[in-house]
C-alpha cells in the first residue's frame, strides 16, 4: 500500500507538470483527488489493513494528498498570473480620458420646507406625530365634529375606498388619534405633517394630492392669545422679522371660534400690490380654538381642558416664500426647477 501511494504521488506530480492550461490542470485534480480517483480508493481500502499498518498508511496518504494539492495550487496560480499578464498587455486603459460627472441630488423643495417648519415648532416645544394615509371615516370626519349628515362634508370631495375607508383629506385625524390615545389624561402639544388627498381638478393652485402641516395644543387654560403668539412667532421666524399678522373670523367645524391668518405682503410691505391683490395681506393658514365636542369625543373634559389647532399647506408657503407661480412645478420632477432650490 505504501508503494502504491508513492507511485501515485510521482505519477500525479508528473501529470501536474505536464498540464498546459487550467482545463488540463482541473482534469488532473479530478482524476487523482476526485470521488472516483485512486487516492479515494486507497483511503477506502484502509479498513482492510492491520491495526499496526493503518496509522502509518493514513499518515502517508495525507502527505501524498497534501503534496498533490500543493502542486496543483501552485500551477493554478501560475496559469492565472499568465492569463492576467496577457490581459494587461492586450487591454489598455486610457487614463487621460475625462471621467463621467456624478450629479448629486438634494432634498426636494417641499421636503426642505416641511423640515424647516418641523424644526421651528420643535423649538417651541411641539412633538412630531404621524398617522395613516388610508383613514377611517370616523377619524377623518366624525371625531372632528363632522357627522355623516353634516353639510360641511360637501366642502371636501374625498377619495373613498369603502364606505368607511378613504384617503385622508387632511392630517387632522392624527390629532384625533393622539388625543384618543391620551384619553384626556395629559396635555397634547404636537404637529402632524403628511400627504393628503382631495378630488380637486389640478391647476396652478390646486392638486388632488398635496401636503399639510397641522398643529394642536391642548392643556389647561389654553387661550386664543396663545394661538396668536405661536402663529406670530412662526410668521416672523419663517418669513422674516418684519412680517405682521392679522386674524380674521372664519369657520371650521372642528374649531370654535375659527380664524384665517394673513401675513403682510413681503413685496409691498402692506401698501398694496398685484401679488396681494392691493390688500397688503396674503392668506397663509387657518386655525382656532378646539371645539368642545372634539375634546369630549377624545376623552377630554372641556370644562377643564381647552386647546387650539391650526393647519397650513407647505406648497402654498413655498409658493409665497420663493415666488413659485404654479403648484404643479412641485410634482412634475423637472430638474431645471428643482435644482434651483438645492442648498449647498
UniProtKB/TrEMBL annotation:
Any GO MF annotation of the entry: tRNA binding
Quaternary structure and partners: Tetramer of two alpha and two beta subunits.
Reaction catalysed by this enzyme: tRNA(Phe) + L-phenylalanine + ATP = L-phenylalanyl-tRNA(Phe) + AMP + diphosphate + H(+)
GO biological process: phenylalanyl-tRNA aminoacylation
Binding, Mg(2+): 256
Family in the record: Belongs to the class-II aminoacyl-tRNA synthetase family. Phe-tRNA synthetase alpha subunit type 1 subfamily.
UniProt xrefs under PANTHER family: PHENYLALANINE--TRNA LIGASE, MITOCHONDRIAL (PTHR11538:SF41), PHENYLALANYL-TRNA SYNTHETASE (PTHR11538)
Pfam families the UniProt entry points to: Phe_tRNA-synt_N, tRNA-synt_2d
Needed cofactors: Mg(2+)
Alphabetized UniProt keyword annotations: Aminoacyl-tRNA synthetase, ATP-binding, Cytoplasm, Ligase, Magnesium, Metal-binding, Nucleotide-binding, Protein biosynthesis
Enzyme class: ligase
EC number, UniProt record: 6.1.1.20
Name the record gives this protein: Phenylalanine--tRNA ligase alpha subunit
UniProt xrefs under Gene3D superfamilies: Bira Bifunctional Protein, Domain 2
Domain (Aminoacyl-transfer RNA synthetases class-II family profile): residue spans on this chain: 109-320
Manner of cofactor binding, per the entry note: Binds 2 magnesium ions per tetramer.
Subcellular location: Cytoplasm
Gene from which the chain derives: pheS
GO cellular component: cytoplasm
Amino acid at each position: 500500500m505504501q508503494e502504491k501511494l508513492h507511485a501515485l504521488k510521482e505519477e500525479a506530480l508528473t501529470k501536474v507538470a505536464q498540464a498546459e492550461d487550467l482545463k488540463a490542470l482541473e482534469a488532473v485534480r479530478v482524476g487523482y483527488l476526485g470521488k472516483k480517483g485512486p487516492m479515494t480508493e486507497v483511503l477506502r481500502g484502509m479498513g482492510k489493513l492491520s491495526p499496526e499498518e493503518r496509522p502509518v498508511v493514513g499518515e502517508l496518504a495525507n502527505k501524498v494528498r497534501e503534496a498533490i494539492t500543493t502542486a496543483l495550487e501552485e500551477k493554478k496560480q501560475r496559469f492565472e498570473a499568465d492569463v492576467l499578464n496577457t490581459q494587461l498587455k492586450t487591454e489598455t486603459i486610457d487614463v487621460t480620458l475625462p471621467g463621467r460627472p456624478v450629479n448629486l441630488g438634494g432634498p426636494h423643495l417641499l421636503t426642505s420646507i416641511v423640515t424647516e417648519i418641523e424644526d421651528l415648532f420643535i423649538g417651541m416645544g411641539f412633538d412630531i406625530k404621524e398617522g395613516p394615509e388610508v383613514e377611517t371615516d370616523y377619524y377623518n370626519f366624525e371625531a372632528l365634529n363632522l357627522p355623516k349628515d353634516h353639510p360641511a362634508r360637501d366642502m371636501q370631495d374625498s377619495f373613498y375606498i369603502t364606505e368607511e375607508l378613504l384617503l385622508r383629506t387632511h392630517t387632522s385625524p392624527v390629532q384625533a388619534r393622539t388625543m384618543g390615545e391620551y384619553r384626556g389624561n395629559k396635555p397634547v402639544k404636537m404637529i402632524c405633517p403628511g400627504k393628503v388627498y382631495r378630488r380637486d381638478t389640478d391647476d396652478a393652485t390646486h392638486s388632488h394630492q398635496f401636503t399639510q402641516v397641522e398643529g394642536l395644543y391642548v392643556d389647561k387654560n389654553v387661550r386664543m392669545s396663545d394661538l396668536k403668539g405661536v402663529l406670530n412667532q412662526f410668521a416672523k421666524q419663517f418669513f422674516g422679522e418684519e412680517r405682521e399678522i392679522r386674524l380674521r373670523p372664519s369657520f371650521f367645524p372642528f374649531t370654535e371660534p375659527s380664524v384665517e391668518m394673513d401675513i403682510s405682503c413681503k413685496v409691498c410691505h402692506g401698501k398694496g400690490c398685484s401679488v396681494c391683490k392691493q390688500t397688503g395681506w396674503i392668506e397663509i393658514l387657518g386655525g382656532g380654538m378646539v371645539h368642545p365636542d372634539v375634546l369630549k369625543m377624545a376623552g377630554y373634559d372641556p370644562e377643564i381642558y381647552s386647546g387650539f389647532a391650526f393647519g397650513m399647506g407647505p406648497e402654498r408657503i413655498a409658493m409665497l416664500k420663493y415666488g413659485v407661480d404654479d403648484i404643479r412645478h412641485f410634482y412634475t420632477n423637472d430638474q431645471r426647477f428643482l435644482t434651483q432650490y438645492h442648498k449647498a
